[in-house]
Structure formats: C-alpha cells, structure tokens
C-alpha cells in the first residue's frame, strides 16, 4: 500500500481548467487501479495559504535550531510543519497546475516555500544542497494554452521546469508528466488536443 498525495493548484471551475480535467481523470483512474492505496487530496486555492513571511521564517528557523519559541511562533511553526509532514508522508505525489504568465500560480509557489526546509526536506553539504526525500515519485499534470515545448515560446516555460527542479531539489528524481498544450493557440484542434491529453493521463495513472 502506498500513500499518495494529490495536489491541485488551479482555482478555476473544472470545466474551464484543463489542468483540473487532467487531475480528475488521472485521480479517478488511479483510484480504480490502486484501491489499496491511501489517498490524500489538497486543494491549494481552498487552503488559501498565507505567504511564507518573516514570522513563519523565524519560527521555522528557531524550531530547526532547537531554540525556544514564543507561543505565537509555536503556532506558526506548527502550521507550516503540518504541510511539510503531509508531504513527507506521501510515497507518491501528483501535482496538477496550469502555466500562468509563464510560471505557476502564486499559491503553488507559496506551498513550495513551506516545503523547502533546511535540515528536514533538504540539507546543505560541502558540495551544495542535497535533497532528503529520496525514493518518492512525482507525477506532474500541466496545461498551457500555447505551445511551449518548442518554437519561439520554449524559453518562456517556467512552470513544469520550475516544479521539476523543486522536486529534484528535494531529492525526488523520479518524475513523470503529462502536458496538454496549444488548445488556445489552435482552437480548431482544441477538443482533439485535450482529449488526447486526458487519454494519456488515464493510461499513465494505471502504471504510476
């Protein structure tokens, strides 16, 4: 039995968000084919995470150093740690997110700010930072209206690239992805493009 954490980072209605259609398709197929696994789901827009501000940074720093915390700092540290612990419990992570303005929604960036904790999810060594979450698997589900895999916009893709780098930074080297792109750029082919992506997600969920 595996612990699987499904994370969605898109606040739009499902019928208007291709990344959420990928999420729903992948999750349904995964649950059907892995009934023994323990599933957790987190909707980052519903969570409405506060920015990783100075209060949280200070609280987590002091906690990591074994320093005495104030009552308010204990609350801040416990709040951040709840998300870190949930992520660390997972054997597999599924992340669904769109490409917005060349990057990811701000709430996903904030979530990663919570997760990147020196001494817990990564550590500094003489050779540079080293991820501590080895052995986990991640699957990325991304949608982008234009074509960014090649051509003039390729250099502006900083969503899948960013999330993959974060996973690798944390020690998660085993990453897979399904990307739907070009459905807004080529509206006459949109239905075909989206359906192909959903089918790819369905097939991938069986073997993930």
Automatic annotation (TrEMBL):
One of its GO terms (molecular function) is electron transfer activity. Keywords: Flavoprotein, FMN, NAD, Oxidoreductase. The keyword Oxidoreductase applies. It is an enzyme of class 1 (oxidoreductase). It catalyses: 2 a quinone + NADH + H(+) = 2 a 1,4-benzosemiquinone + NAD(+); N,N-dimethyl-1,4-phenylenediamine + anthranilate + 2 NAD(+) = 2-(4-dimethylaminophenyl)diazenylbenzoate + 2 NADH + 2 H(+). Binds 1 FMN per subunit. Its EC number is 1.6.5.-, 1.7.1.17. Its cofactor is FMN. Residues 3-203 form the Flavodoxin-like fold domain. Also exhibits azoreductase activity. Catalyzes the reductive cleavage of the azo bond in aromatic azo compounds to the corresponding amines. NCBIfam families: PRK13556.1. HAMAP family: Azoreductase_type1 (MF_01216). Belongs to the azoreductase type 1 family. Homodimer. This is FMN dependent NADH:quinone oxidoreductase. It comes from Salsuginibacillus halophilus. The gene is azoR.
């Amino acid at each position: 039995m595996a612990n699987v954490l499904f994370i969605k980072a898109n606040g739009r209605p499902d019928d208007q968000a291709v990344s959420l259609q990928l999420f729903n398709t992948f999750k349904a197929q995964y649950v059907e084919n892995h009934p023994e696994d323990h599933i957790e789901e987190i909707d980052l827009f519903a969570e409405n995470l506060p920015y990783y501000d100075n209060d949280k940074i200070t609280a987590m720093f002091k906690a990591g150093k074994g320093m005495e915390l104030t009552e308010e700092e204990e609350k801040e540290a416990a709040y951040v740690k709840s998300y870190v612990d949930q992520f660390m419990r997972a054997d597999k992570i599924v992340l669904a997110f769109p490409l917005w303005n060349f990057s990811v929604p701000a709430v996903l960036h904030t979530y990663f700010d919570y997760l990147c904790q020196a001494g817990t999810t990564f550590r500094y060594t003489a050779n540079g930072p080293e991820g501590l979450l080895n052995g986990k698997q991640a699957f990325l589900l991304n949608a982008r209206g234009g074509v960014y895999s090649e051509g003039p916009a390729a250099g502006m893709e900083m969503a899948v690239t960013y999330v993959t780098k974060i996973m690798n930074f944390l020690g998660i080297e085993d990453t897979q992805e399904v990307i739907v792109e070009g459905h807004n750029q080529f509206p006459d082919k949109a239905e075909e493009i989206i359906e192909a992506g959903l089918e790819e997600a369905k097939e991938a969920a069986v073997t993930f």
